[in-house]
């Protein structure tokens, strides 16, 4: 019975997400279509042609970010729960984020001492960490530090992952809105990244606490149960 309720809840989340992705991707696609039509006009000036091409590319990039922010959740059929080595998962996420971090002058510091395993979908978990890291990097336009670490809490049978940045931080109101679909403060934001983060961690029976101070930075604290079989 409990299983059925969980399954139904998952299906509900999945269908809500699918509807959001479809809706959000359609907007940039419609606009790309319009600009391609304009571009086919032979009388178009070189200046306009350049401008429209640039917008078309930007819109396609936007569609791309919507899809990648959602990636693992948009593919529920391949979801498989397994044992996840935290050191491996975090190093891999750090590696994927490294070129983006470089571009923004952000130094990634990983401090991973003890081996620990948790239980969940590897790809979804990685996506959640990448989404947190991406937001952290984007919060440091003038460069800074992104630190990833975790501590194992044996007595409580859990692990606390900490992901912190030295970026612009958030105020009380922003913190409260974090995780709501389409909430974004960025020109080209999707407002979907944190929704995915919360949903993935919830799906792993974890919990998230976000500490932030304007002008100082943000720390995500993720508590996850240790994988008992490991
Ligand atoms: P997006 O990144 O597309 O804006 P997200 O759901 O990933 O959407 O994030 C929502 C909003 O939360 C961001 O626009 C930003 O205002 C805020 N935010 C998330 N993480 C951080 C962070 N580490 N530092 C500052 N603000 C953040
Ligand atoms: Mg984001």
TrEMBL record:
It is an enzyme of class 2 (transferase). The keyword Membrane applies. Its main location: membrane. The keyword Calcium does not apply. Residues 20-228 form the Histidine kinase domain. It catalyses: ATP + protein L-histidine = ADP + protein N-phospho-L-histidine. GO terms for molecular function: kinase activity. Keywords: ATP-binding, Cell membrane, Kinase, Membrane, Nucleotide-binding, Phosphoprotein, Transferase, Transmembrane, Transmembrane helix, Two-component regulatory system. Its EC number is 2.7.13.3. It is a multi-pass membrane protein. It is found in: Cell membrane. This is histidine kinase. It comes from Paenibacillus glycanilyticus. The chain holds residues 186 to 415 of 415 of the full protein.
């Amino acid at each position: 019975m409990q299983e059925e309720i969980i399954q139904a809840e998952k299906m509900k989340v999945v269908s809500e997400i699918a509807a959001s992705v479809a809706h959000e991707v359609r907007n940039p696609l419609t606009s790309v279509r319009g600009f391609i039509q304009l571009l086919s006009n032979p009388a178009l000036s070189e200046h306009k042609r350049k401008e429209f091409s640039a917008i078309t590319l930007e819109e396609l990039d936007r569609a791309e970010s919507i899809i990648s922010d959602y990636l693992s959740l948009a593919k529920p059929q391949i979801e498989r729960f397994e044992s996840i080595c935290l050191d491996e998962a975090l190093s891999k996420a750090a590696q994927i984020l490294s070129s983006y971090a470089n571009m923004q002058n952000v130094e990634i510091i990983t401090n991973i001492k003890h081996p620990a395993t948790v239980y969940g979908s590897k790809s979804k978990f990685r996506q959640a960490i990448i989404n947190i890291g991406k937001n952290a990097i984007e919060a440091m336009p003038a460069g800074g530090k992104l630190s990833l670490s975790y501590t194992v809490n044996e007595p409580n049978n859990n692990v606390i992952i900490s992901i912190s940045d030295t970026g612009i931080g958030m105020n009380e109101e922003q913190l409260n809105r974090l995780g709501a679909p389409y909430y974004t403060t960025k020109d080209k934001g999707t407002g979907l990244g944190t929704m995915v983060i919360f949903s993935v961690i919830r799906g792993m029976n974890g919990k998230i606490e976000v500490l932030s101070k304007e002008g100082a930075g943000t720390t995500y604290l993720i508590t996850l149960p240790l994988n008992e079989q490991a």
